[in-house]
Amino acid sequence: MNIVSKIDAWQAIRKACAGKTIGFVPTMGHLHAGHLSLCERSRRENEITVVSIFVNPTQFNQASDFDLYPRTLEQDTAILASQQVDYLLLPDAESLYPDHYQIQLTETEMSRELEGEYRPGHFNGMLTVVLKLLNLVQPARAYFGEKDYQQLLLVKKMAAALFLPVDIVPCETIRAEDGLALSSRNSRLNTEQRQKAAHFPQLLQSHQPVEHIAEQLKALGFKVDYIVEKWQRRLGAVWLDDVRLIDNISIHK
Ligand code: PAF
């Protein structure tokens, strides 16, 4: 696996890859089986697989969340190398934001609700960095987990609106045995919180009205941001103390 930190070095490599299909998996690191399933799919469907690790400061609406975001680069690099990933991109914030984030991409509808309501500015930052990364990597396909369902819809919407020549591929959420969706943030849960966290997907999957689900989660000690049905999914966001969890399931009938 080639590790590339400099943007101009990557651009030279990208030129040399002309004519090959590239699959791209953008990440913020602290990789888990969910990320690896995206890499595996990319490997199956493309000649070259590129993964990026960049903890994007502009999509964190709280400085503490950015500071506490787990960074495990050494471990991530070893995992990706064993997954036969071809290129690992590790850009830094100065090179990705030569404009100091004065140029931003804004979506004015979907990005304002649910996650957008509770995390103002999050989707501007996410869309802006994803656009930058897609422009740099120029993949045929880019892989996004369904766990961040609103993110996936917004990236698809951006790709369509800006005529980006990329196929945005949705990938199923990977779960732990007790149903908890894998997420880099799960490692911030202590043992007791981790046990309690399993109630979240279990209740989300139960055949009950969303109001009942929210009440039961509150009774168990969760703080509930929202539990709603939309886009043929049931989506939720909750807090266990200072750790925020999001999840969604298909309710397609
Ligand atoms: O889902 C994530 O990890 C991030 O939002 C992404 C897509 C890598 C952009 O920073």
TrEMBL record:
<dbReference type="GO" id="GO:0005524">
    <property type="term" value="F:ATP binding"/>
</dbReference>
<comment type="similarity">
    <text>Belongs to the pantothenate synthetase family.</text>
</comment>
<keyword id="KW-0436">Ligase</keyword>
<keyword id="KW-0963">Cytoplasm</keyword>
<comment type="subunit">
    <text>Homodimer.</text>
</comment>
<keyword id="KW-0566">Pantothenate biosynthesis</keyword>
<feature type="binding site">
    <location>
        <begin position="28"/>
        <end position="35"/>
    </location>
    <ligand>
        <name>ATP</name>
    </ligand>
</feature>
<feature type="binding site">
    <location>
        <begin position="145"/>
        <end position="148"/>
    </location>
    <ligand>
        <name>ATP</name>
    </ligand>
</feature>
<comment type="function">
    <text>Catalyzes the condensation of pantoate with beta-alanine in an ATP-dependent reaction via a pantoyl-adenylate intermediate.</text>
</comment>
<dbReference type="InterPro" id="IPR004821">
    <property type="entry name" value="Cyt_trans-like"/>
</dbReference>
<feature type="binding site">
    <location>
        <position position="59"/>
    </location>
    <ligand>
        <name>(R)-pantoate</name>
    </ligand>
</feature>
<feature type="binding site">
    <location>
        <position position="174"/>
    </location>
    <ligand>
        <name>ATP</name>
    </ligand>
</feature>
<feature type="binding site">
    <location>
        <position position="59"/>
    </location>
    <ligand>
        <name>beta-alanine</name>
    </ligand>
</feature>
<keyword id="KW-0547">Nucleotide-binding</keyword>
<feature type="binding site">
    <location>
        <position position="151"/>
    </location>
    <ligand>
        <name>(R)-pantoate</name>
    </ligand>
</feature>
<keyword id="KW-0067">ATP-binding</keyword>
<dbReference type="InterPro" id="IPR042176">
    <property type="entry name" value="Pantoate_ligase_C"/>
</dbReference>
<dbReference type="GO" id="GO:0005829">
    <property type="term" value="C:cytosol"/>
</dbReference>
<comment type="pathway">
    <text>Cofactor biosynthesis; (R)-pantothenate biosynthesis; (R)-pantothenate from (R)-pantoate and beta-alanine: step 1/1.</text>
</comment>
<feature type="binding site">
    <location>
        <begin position="182"/>
        <end position="185"/>
    </location>
    <ligand>
        <name>ATP</name>
    </ligand>
</feature>
<dbReference type="Pfam" id="PF02569">
    <property type="entry name" value="Pantoate_ligase"/>
</dbReference>
<dbReference type="InterPro" id="IPR014729">
    <property type="entry name" value="Rossmann-like_a/b/a_fold"/>
</dbReference>
<feature type="active site" description="Proton donor">
    <location>
        <position position="35"/>
    </location>
</feature>
<dbReference type="GO" id="GO:0004592">
    <property type="term" value="F:pantoate-beta-alanine ligase activity"/>
</dbReference>
<dbReference type="GO" id="GO:0015940">
    <property type="term" value="P:pantothenate biosynthetic process"/>
</dbReference>
<protein>
    <recommendedName>
        <fullName>Pantothenate synthetase</fullName>
        <ecNumber>6.3.2.1</ecNumber>
    </recommendedName>
</protein>
<dbReference type="InterPro" id="IPR003721">
    <property type="entry name" value="Pantoate_ligase"/>
</dbReference>
